[in-house]
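Tokens as discussed.
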């Protein structure tokens, strides 16, 4: 039950999934801190420091049993969250108190845990991203042959197909997938670096044995489930990593934003519609309305995510020497909320893409209104083949096109260009061919083949890697 008397973050109460919210919870963070302390103690013992199995066993006993009230009390006294949790952990694991956090700085737990949390969040995003790609793939294949008006400058242009347009959305997501995968493949922990990154405290613990210090870091990182570690750091992991993370999240938001805008425009034209539930209300005053609420929400959240990389860029730019603490409060907000936003965006994207409604008769009506103008070149060429004069035909079509255009724009009537052409003796040789010439499928080029080729060659290999993760649906909470 949320406390309605104070502000609650709508990302938690309305939009993001429970899974992503739990990933950025204090509980997960503090459990990871204890994992880091246990891994450090184990590795230090293995390399000869005076740490006992009993101490480590006692630490493990309380690894997930965090005494929050004690931690809160200690933090109110020492004004330092890490030391408060060291004391709280030591209050439980009494025999281990002398060796908890031995040789480490606060960023040993905060930064290593932060990277692991981000890595887990990236994996959650990856799963939802490939599921959206799978939904769009199925949609594109289903409608690969359905002609529709193309638009450039938001003006009617040559025909494409509904499925081919969907591959444009899919292509954006493929680029995002590549960026996300590259980022995940290069995730590194801060490792065991000490207060300013020199490992001086650990060198002292091991009596100047640098090889043991290096081995300590390798062992700790492996115990935490990783192999890669930054070769050099100051007190923190490089804040440029946060910038890279937010840039990838921004790319995903950009793609979703573009998709949502297209759906909103298509819904305005009544060609394609996002799902609208039986009891859903579009407007409190206008009961007939079917507003594209989901797509609008995608755009709204995406706009926020797009604004965040500059924040991380400023933080990375202002890290004085080995570090400054003006990143801390900022990071608590920006990183988590960026992921919660993208999680919500992808939930919506999943829901929309698997429930799109296509109105093919409306699409055909719009094609019929514009295709006569687009078909004039084809009509003219057929007349030339029958012995007509290209220049005279061109002028006659121009005149008839202007008349038809006036009929549409000034009179508000249907496009009657084809009727005008049929009635004109200059075009008599092609009257019997006009229906075939005007078949919309003659104007879609290689759209169906492009859809099949793109999906089979570029999308399917990606989806095959994650076949065990496919099948998710998107939940719209409110």
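Sequence:
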């Amino acid at each position: 039950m949320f406390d309605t008397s104070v502000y609650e973050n709508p990302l938690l109460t309305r939009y993001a999934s429970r899974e992503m919210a739990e990933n950025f919870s204090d509980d997960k963070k503090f459990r990871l801190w204890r994992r880091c302390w246990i891994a450090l103690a184990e590795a230090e013992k293995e390399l000869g420091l005076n740490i006992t199995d009993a101490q480590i066993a006692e630490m493990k006993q309380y690894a997930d049993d965090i005494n929050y009230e004690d931690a809160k009390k200690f933090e109110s006294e020492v004004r330092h969250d890490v030391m408060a949790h060291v004391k709280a952990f030591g209050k439980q694991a009494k025999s281990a108190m002398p060796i908890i956090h031995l040789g480490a700085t606060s960023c040993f737990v905060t930064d290593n845990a932060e990277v692991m949390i981000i890595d887990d969040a990236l994996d959650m995003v990856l799963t939802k991203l490939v599921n959206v790609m799978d939904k769009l793939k199925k949609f594109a294949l289903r409608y690969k042959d359905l002609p529709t008006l193309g638009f450039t400058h938001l003006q009617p242009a040559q025909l494409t197909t509904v499925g081919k347009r969907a591959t444009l959305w899919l292509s954006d997501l493929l680029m995002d997938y590549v960026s996300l995968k590259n980022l995940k493949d290069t995730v590194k922990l801060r490792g065991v670096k000490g207060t300013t990154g020199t490992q001086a405290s650990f060198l002292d613990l091991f009596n100047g044995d640098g090889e043991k210090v290096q081995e300590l870091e390798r062992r700790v990182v492996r115990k935490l489930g990783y192999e890669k570690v930054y070769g050099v750091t100051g007190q923190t992991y490089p804040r440029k990593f946060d910038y890279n993370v937010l840039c990838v999240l921004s790319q995903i938001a950009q793609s979703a934003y573009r998709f949502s805008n297209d759906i909103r425009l298509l819904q305005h034209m009544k060609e394609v519609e996002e799902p609208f539930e039986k009891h859903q209300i579009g407007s409190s005053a206008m009961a007939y309305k079917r507003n594209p609420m989901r797509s609008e929400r995608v755009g709204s959240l995406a706009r926020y995510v797009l604004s965040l990389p500059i924040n991380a860029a400023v933080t990375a730019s202002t890290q004085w020497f080995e570090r400054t603490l003006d990143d801390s409060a900022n990071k608590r907000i920006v990183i988590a909320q960026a992921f919660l936003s993208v999680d919500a965006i992808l939930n919506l994207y999943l829901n929309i893409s698997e429930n799109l409604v296509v109105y093919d008769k409306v699409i055909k009506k719009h094609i019929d209104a514009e295709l006569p103008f687009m078909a004039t070149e084809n009509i003219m060429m057929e007349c030339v083949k029958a012995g007509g004069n290209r220049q005279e035909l061109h002028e006659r079509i121009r005149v008839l096109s202007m008349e038809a255009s006036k009929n549409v724009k000034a009179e508000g009537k249907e496009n009657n260009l084809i009727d005008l052409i049929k009635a004109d003796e200059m075009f008599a040789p092609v009257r019997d061919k006009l229906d075939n010439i005007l078949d919309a499928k003659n104007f879609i080029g290689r759209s169906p083949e492009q859809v099949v080729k793109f999906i089979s060659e570029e999308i399917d290999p990606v989806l095959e890697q994650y076949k065990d993760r496919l099948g998710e649906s998107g939940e719209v909470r409110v």
